[in-house]
Amino acid sequence: MSQNYLAVWEFEINPQSRGQFEEIYGPEGAWARLFRQSQDYRGTQLLRDLTRPGRYLTLDCWSSREAFQTFKQAHAGEYETLDQQCENLTEHEVMVGEFEEVSAK
What is the H or E stretch that residue 41 is in? Predict the structure, then answer.
């Protein structure tokens, strides 16, 4: 049985980019539209930190880590282009980690 895989990213954004960042990185944004090309993509959540203005987390859910890696390889050009287009929206970004759902035993 495949587990759900979650890629978590943290962003510090340029304050003037808030609206554009939220639009592009949100659940209906450009990243989600790119990811939707895969049937293994399960959705994106965008979280805004209430105590640190400008700090966000994205949670991208996939059927598995392998599915995400395969997607990135197959769409490397589109992924890189979109990443470059979004560079000026953020001051800092880092992958927090890769997680999988723990099933009850």
Answer: strand 41-48
